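Exam revision sheet. Question 4 asks you to relate a sequence to its structure. Input first:
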Amino acid sequence: MATGPRRHEDWAHDVLALMHRSVPDLRGWLRLDHDRANPARHSMPAYPFDPPAAARFSDHLHRLEKEAAVAALAVTAEEWQAEPAPVRSRPDRDAVPADARTLLDRYGPTARHWTNATAAASDPAPDFLTPGFSAQRSHGFLTRKYFNGLDLFDDLGLIVVGENEVGVFWSIGAC
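Answer key, structure tokens:
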């Protein structure tokens, strides 16, 4: 999860800068980046990502309505395999999307939302909560290279484009 400045009309360039970790958070907020010290980044600076070129983003992303973006972000709180408590059945079911809404509100009321989930290809408001996280399919943004015994197999991403900031929220399945 990372946020950075929006410096380009074509915001895909700003998202690529986030994936390469080459820009700071404008507000100094903490980033969740478990791969920042991974040796794989020496040969692949965007690891675990192998994102398409900015000009090809439209081939891999689909627009989401705000509430669908909230649900997509909420289901990233689930585990990829053997989820013991999907968001849809948790006692705090309403709290998880509320937290996701709070995060997304940072980007302002005119923010646009994009996902690599194929469920949004024909519908900008797919239901992410009912089927849950493990049922999601996507256009992969991940590397297919095998590093240090870790195989990355699926991903679900959300990109938020505000007036002054872009945000990247990603969940990655691995074994």
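Marking note for examiners. The chain is about 20% helix and 20% strand.
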